[in-house]
Design a protein that fits this description.
It is built from 16 helices and 21 strands. By secondary structure, the protein is α+β, with helices and mostly antiparallel strands. The protein has three domains: 165 residues, FAD/NAD(P)-binding domain (3-Layer(bba) Sandwich), CATH 3.50.50.60; 191 residues, FAD/NAD(P)-binding domain; 72 residues, no CATH class. It binds flavin-adenine dinucleotide. The site of flavin-adenine dinucleotide has 37 residues, from helix 1, strand 2, strand 13 and helix 9.
Length: 504
């Protein structure tokens, strides 16, 4: 396009679920220069998926970006702290491990901590890998405190995220966005109008038209603009991730209030448990090819820790993503761009990442191919790295004799994952590539947690004094346990914080 095409003046967000309101809040904060119009269209009749209650640590950056007060946020969303995910029965029935946030031990002279642990593993007093993470030690006692800055304090190695009520979170963001100048339009979109390969407006059932320069498709699984109107194809990953349905049902609050999500493997899928202050969120993600809807619901209800506190809801999905997430003047965020099951609580993060990347590559009305291509490349790389991480959980199971798990153990996995697992099995070598969300502590938590023990270790670890290393490990292990034992109870800590929240 020749000349200066001019700035985007009119931003239209289609959909008011978590994705839509996250985008609206961030746009209100960073794009509202007084000359730009930001409009969100949503339909009460269609509603939202209403799930999505567990997050990962980068959400702290999103809230900080918006200037959100943490105590106010937790008070408004009935939120709790999350130190990781406990996986139950993924290795073999009855086994459990925690994937904690934060780091394990400390690397030494460029040698990763897990390499040192692997070399000494099996010696008296070395103990399991999980004993070397501050977040795991705190989680085990249902304790919590904020990390500290002093690097000598083991608490500096803890990282955390939140659990919250998805409906309350969307309402919280809506209040924020509307207070910062976003206009909300209620109505059902019937038609998407286009000219020259660009979307020009959406038309509501009552005939009203909402015109825009840039459209953010947050319309959920239907993918109204990117998928339906622009026909961007869906890349299906269900051959690797066969779970395609979920039942979700809340039950009463359970004490102690655990500061972690639980993911329990079931016969044909897995069950989540998310502790909130006013209730517990539960869901059963399963493969409809391996289990009937009725059986899946019964299994979920039989496993509740407290009395049911609402009607069960069913959700249907296919694992995969749109081949492009930005085409022309349409960017898809959230479920409109694709879905990976919530095993590692990554969907809300992908919305946040998409928003941050869009701001970094924010177009003018020329919609340069180069910006779009970079967005699609970076988002694609991150989604595929997450996909591999989730597949690894399934593929590395030891649940022999259960058809669903047997199939997953024997399936062909992506080449990228094959290469990663081969390196790790050999000498525990792991690398974090370009835009990987999950780093070495995350991968080692899951791989070692599911019983993948490297045959050897890094050559550099052999050059180190073993006695000194053993003393170092003993000291770390003791320091994490002692520090954790002195931390406050999670529920009491929250109560104190929220009692001081503005408006609480
Ligand atoms: C079973 C399950 C569990 C999950 N758990 C987690 C989790 O623990 N952590 C996590 O990070 N993520 C989780 N997710 C993902 C998370 O729920 C979503 O990423 C998040 O809620 C975003 O949804 P959304 O806003 O894209 O879509 P939706 O919530 O579906 O919102 C779509 C919006 O578009 C509007 N809309 C659609 N069509 C029209 C139309 N024609 N006209 C007008 N408006 C329209 C709707 O009214 C709605 O407002 C989970 C998802 C599922 C399915």
């Amino acid at each position: 396009m020749s000349g200066n095409p001019g700035p985007v003046r009119n931003l239209v967000i289609v959909g008011g679920g978590t994705a839509g309101w996250m985008m609206a809040a961030a746009a209100a904060r960073f794009l509202n220069d007084g000359q730009r119009r930001i409009t969100l269209v949503e339909s009460d009749a269609i509603g939202t998926v209403g799930v999505g209650e567990a997050t990962i640590p980068p959400i702290l950056n999103f809230n900080a970006m918006l200037g959100i007060d943490e105590a106010e946020f937790l008070a408004a969303t009935q939120g709790s702290f999350k130190l990781g995910i406990e996986f139950v029965g993924w290795g073999a029935p009855g086994e459990r491990y925690l994937h904690p946030f934060g780091t394990y031990g400390r690397d030494l002279h460029g040698v990763a901590f897990h390499q040192i642990w692997r070399k000494l593993q099996g010696r008296p007093d070395v103990g399991p890998y999980g004993d070397y993470a501050m977040a795991a030690a705190a989680a085990a006692g249902a304790r919590f405190a904020h990390p500290v800055a002093d690097a000598r304090d083991p608490l500096s190695q803890l990282a955390y995220a939140y659990h919250f009520d998805a409906g309350l979170y969307a309402r919280f963001l809506r209040r924020y966005a509307e207070a910062h100048g976003v206009t909300r339009i209620e109505g059902q979109i019937a038609t998407v109008l286009q000219a020259d390969g660009l979307v020009t407006a959406v038309q509501l059932q009552d005939g009203r038209q909402v015109a825009g320069d840039l459209f953010i498709d947050c319309s959920g699984f239907r993918s109204l603009l990117l998928g339906e109107a622009l026909a961007v194809p869906f890349t299906d990953w269900s051959h690797w991730l066969p779970c395609d349905r979920a039942w979700a049902v809340p039950c009463g609050r359970v004490d102690p209030l655990l500061p972690y999500t639980r993911a329990t493997a079931q016969v044909a899928g897995w069950q989540w448990r998310i502790p909130l202050r006013h209730r517990t969120g539960n869901g059963h993600v399963y493969s409809s090819a391996h289990m009937s809807d009725q059986a899946a619901l019964e299994l979920l209800q039989a496993g509740l820790d407290a009395q049911r506190a609402g009607e069960p809801r069913q959700l249907r999905f296919t694992a995969g993503r749109r081949a492009e997430l930005w085409r022309g003047n349409v960017v898809a965020l959230g479920l409109a761009g694709g879905f990976l099951e919530p095993l590692e609580s990554t969907s809300i993060h992908l919305i946040q990442h998409g928003i941050q990347l869009l701001f970094a590559l924010f177009p003018d009305r020329g919609f340069a191919t180069i910006e779009r291509a970079e967005y699609n490349r970076l988002m694609g790389a991150q989604i595929e790295a997450i996909r591999d991480f989730i597949i690894a959980h399934y593929h590395l199971n030891n649940r022999v004799g259960e058809p669903f798990w047997d199939d997953l153990r024997h399936m062909a996995i992506p080449d990228t994952l094959t290469a990663k697992l081969a390196l790790f099995r050999n000498k525990g070598q792991l690398f974090r590539y370009d835009d990987d969300l999950f780093g070495i502590p995350n991968w080692t938590a899951v791989l070692i947690g599911q019983g993948v023990m490297p045959q050897g270790w890094a050559a550099l670890a052999d050059g180190m004094d073993e006695e000194r290393l053993l003393a170092m490990l003993a000291q770390y292990r003791q320091a994490y346990a002692q520090r954790a034992a002195g931390l406050p109870d999670h529920a009491a800590y929250l109560q104190r914080m929220i009692g001081q929240a503005p408006g609480a």
